[in-house]
Amino acid sequence: MTTIEWAVLCAGLVIWYAFHEWTSNSGRRKAWTEHQEWLRQHHVARDRREREILERLEDLRVEVDALRTQVR
Q1: pLDDT tens track for 32-68
Q2: CA 30 → CA 21, 26, 37, 51, 58, distances in Å?
Q3: What is the pLDDT of residue 57?
Q4: What is each CA distance from 15 to 5, 11, 23, 38, 44, in whole angstroms?
Q5: What is the pLDDT of residue 26?
Q6: pTM for this one?
Q7: How confident is the model at residue 72 (pLDDT cuts 50, 70, 90)?
Q8: d(Cα 23, Cα 29) in Å, to the nearest integer?
C-alpha cells in the first residue's frame, strides 16, 4: 500500500470511530438526561415531604405549648 492509501485508510478509520463514539454518546446523553430528570423529580418530592413534615412538627409544637399553658 502506498502512503496515500494508508492515509485514506487511517482517515476512514478515524471518521468511523468518531461517528461510532458520537452515536453511542448520544444514547448515553439521553440516559444521563433521563436520570437527571428522575433525580430532580425525586428531590422535588422529597423536599415537599420534608416541608410537610416540618409544618406538621411546627403545628404539634404549637399544640404542645397550648396544652402546657392550660395545665399550668
Answers
A1: 888 999 999 999 999 999 999 999 999 999 999 999 9
A2: 14, 6, 11, 31, 42
A3: 97
A4: 15, 6, 12, 34, 43
A5: 75
A6: 0.49
A7: confident
A8: 10
Eight-state DSSP code of residue 1:
-
The DSSP symbol for 2 reads: -
Copy the grid coordinates of residue 65: 405549648
Return the H-helix or E-strand segment holding 26: helix 3-71
Q: Are 15 and 22 in contact (CB under 8 A)?
A: no
Rg of the chain over Cα atoms, rounded to whole angstroms, equals 31
Helix (H, G, I), strand (E, B) or coil at 17: helix
Residue recorded with cell 395545665: 71
CA–CA separation, 28 vs 26, rounded Å? 5
